[in-house]
Amino acid sequence: MNHYLKAIIGFCLLHLLLVITIYLLGPSAMGSMWLGIGMMVMYIAIMVGLAIWYRKQLGGYATLKQLFVFLFVVMIVGGIFSGLLNLLLYNVIDPELEAKTKDVMKQAMIERLEKYGMSEDVIEESVNRIDEQEFGSFKALLNSLFGGAIMAAIFGVIISLIFRKNKPEFVDGEEAPVIDSNLNS
Asked: What is the pLDDT of residue 132?
């Protein structure tokens, strides 16, 4: 099995386990602001782990391009899996989950904005924005994929820059063989 396929399967299984765990915790966990922040930190940690693992699979060396392409492909395929899982969750497994999650998010938003002394108009506008969100639609899937692709590209470049390691030009104290460019002409 090639490295890409192993990483994609591992990522998708991990994501499936997380979704099941969060779903079992209930709508209050799904509507939590801290969940989104925690998931972002966790995905960055997964990308770091994947970069280290892939570099080891390549003999300890990987170029920026190799790492970036690997991370980007794994995260995009994982994002598609995640979006399809959300469609299944919100439309087939628990069609009432979206309304329950929105209620939790609205209550948390109202409490937070009242704590900061915001006016009723601001609170109402914020609650209306939550009502307009869609979690289990095809449009939500496309928006998630687009945003995920941008994030995967940004963090993929940063992580690839940090964990790239080019092969040395000298092997065992000897200069690497030079390919004569005149042979091709």
From this structure: 87
